[in-house]
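fyi for ur records
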Amino acid sequence: MPDSGRYFDAVVVGSGPNGLAAAIRLALEDLSVLVVEAEETIGGGTRTKELISPGYYHDVCSAIHPMAISSPFLRKLPLSEFGLKWIQPQYPLAHPLDNGRAVIMHRSLDDTAASLGPDGKVYRRLIQPLSDNWETLTKDLLAPLQIPGNPFKMARFGLKALQPAERLTRQFSTEDAKALFGGIAAHSIMALDKPVTSAIGLVLGAAGHAAGWPLPEGGSQMITRSMALYFESLGGVIETGFRVETLDQLPSSKAVLFDLTPRQVLAIAGDRFTPRYRQLLEKFRYGAGVFKIDYILKGPVPWADPRCGQAGTIHLGGTFGEIAAAEKEMSRGIHSARPYVLVAQQSMFDPTRTPDLKHTLWAYCHVPNGSARDMTMAIENQIERFAPGFRDVVEARATMNAPQFEEYNANYIGGDINGGVQDIWQLFSRPVSIRSSPFRLKSLFSPYSTPAAGIYFCSSSAPPGGGVHGMCGYHAAEAALSREFGRPGKERRFKM
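which gave:
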């Protein structure tokens, strides 16, 4: 339990990437910072565990990290000095089709465009403006609503990004290009006929060419482990195994930053908020859940297209139409018989994941929020569809349904790993919906602060939302630095 008699300038509740990013940013200003974590280990969605047998390491949630390596804040930190090492698979992504051939995202934009035939020019026109300006544009892409540093380029992006993926893909003439883009856009965990789903496809597509879709050697845990070690080197303090239930349990401080979702913050600090703000948080909408399987395999997956074995990530679902239908069913509370499945093959590129020549495999699909249905057969049917004989190489498996995800990580309400729906109503203003409060401009331009003095949201329930990038924490810390410690932007010593 934290020393309640000790004073800290700031306390961060939750040790996921956003919580640690907030803590590091504050510590870089020579502030005294405490991080408290309910579980015995830090990491939130970046933990790696021996889920099945000793020596076999599985990423419990996040696995592949294009936004972590691209993060304007994280890439400025000396995390490699604290153990973080990125591994780049030969191909960031493969998307198998029923003809025994896969569509491949190459690191090279030229090679990818060439492989798409007549749609190569369209793909280049959509992706190249982002990938060519990736390092500068990510400062605007991974930020709250603000005047962008690159207004013209962001305006061009916005016109495409606001569209539903279903509409944007009409620019393609081939099933290959439509499937590739659709599989990437489906990371939005929304029906692909919804606005802004194109944004996910464009951003993650550009990331694949500009920065790759890498994995950390030793597991996703190495991201937050390196962050924690760096934070402690700055004088920060981390306490694990302490679940915060009231603010009175915390030491005195000027600021408390919550790497939690609105439901949890309401339970802890709801009495500090105005009745209207409590009502707005109570209307926060959580998104779909996930069903996940971790495997130990006797050998590599026998993909019909051998190139899939050289890709870190595999998208399974067939054509764009099939993927869109599956995600629409999920959004309507229906369990698709042929779900969109995401697969990661970490052990193909990282020998630290297994003690022998066997392999691990990571796979999940989207399900309605709170669903306890076992999707094992549906997932394995999809893998077998593109890798005949897959079940013959399965040695062991462990499954997690949506309620079990919430039990594992209290931030995953109903199995929602994104910290809330990321639709047009909640994307920029989260944790408050502009649909619920259209005239609350503060929720757009200062979404991290609350009406209660010294209390902030720094989780993925604030902009820019889900993903391992730490930018929700970074921007929340910036807000706290300005409001609580009188350190406005022009005097910041940390420059992204």
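The longest helix spans residues 471-485. thats all i got for now
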